[in-house]
Amino acid sequence: MSEGDHVTVAVTGVTGALGSRIAARLADRGVPQLLVGRRPDRLPELPSAQRRGPAAYADASDMREALEGASTLILVSGHRTGRRLEEHATAVEAAIAVGVNRVLYVSLIGASPIATYVNARDQWLTEQFLAGTGIRHTVLGRASTRRRRPPSPTRNSS
């Protein structure tokens, strides 16, 4: 990257498990960030980071304001609301409107239109939307971020 290049990364989902780890690692590397969230009071204080919001995925105006100045958006998938595609599309369109030139979308491994896991179908829809926008993008597949408890030990009744 040349001296004239300017990269500021907007990160969504920073109050969650995955988004907070992404933001912390970027901060450790000195990457300038915009931490975007619905509740600015819950956004972490990190070096080289500005807290932006409130900005919900579905609010185009707030998202445009929060993403202003970013060159890259890391879009961590939102919670299942029944409108996930529309919310993600609004966030991506807001990013494009303010000049973001790359989106890194955190999807799920196995996202497809016929996945048995409903969230994987939603993720696939967002992937298809991104592909149709023309913006440079990368889809990152992840296994579920849901924490699972180990199974309870079974008792042998003998």
What does this 3D model show about the protein?
The chain has a 6-stranded parallel sheet, sandwiched between helices. The chain has a single domain, classed as NAD(P)-binding Rossmann-like Domain (Rossmann fold). The model is unreliable at 147-158 (pLDDT under 50). It is globular and about 40 Å long. The chain is of the alpha/beta class. The protein contains 4 helices and 6 strands; from the N terminus they run E-H-E-E-H-E-H-E-H-E. The chain has helices spanning 17-28, 60-67, 84-97, 118-133; strands at residues 9-12, 33-36, 49-52, 72-76, 102-106, 136-140.
Secondary structure layout plus pairing:
Elements: E1 9-12, H1 17-28, E2 33-36, E3 49-52, H2 60-67, E4 72-76, H3 84-97, E5 102-106, H4 118-133, E6 136-140
Parallel strand pairs: 1-2, 1-4, 2-3, 4-5, 5-6
Helix pairs in contact: 2-3, 3-4
Gist?
The protein is α/β, with parallel strands linked by helices.
CATH class: Alpha Beta
| Strand elements, count | 6
Average pLDDT confidence is 88
Residue share in β-strands: 15-25%
Q: Which properties best describe this structure?
A:
single chain, Rossmann fold, 6-stranded parallel β-sheet, 158 residues, alpha/beta
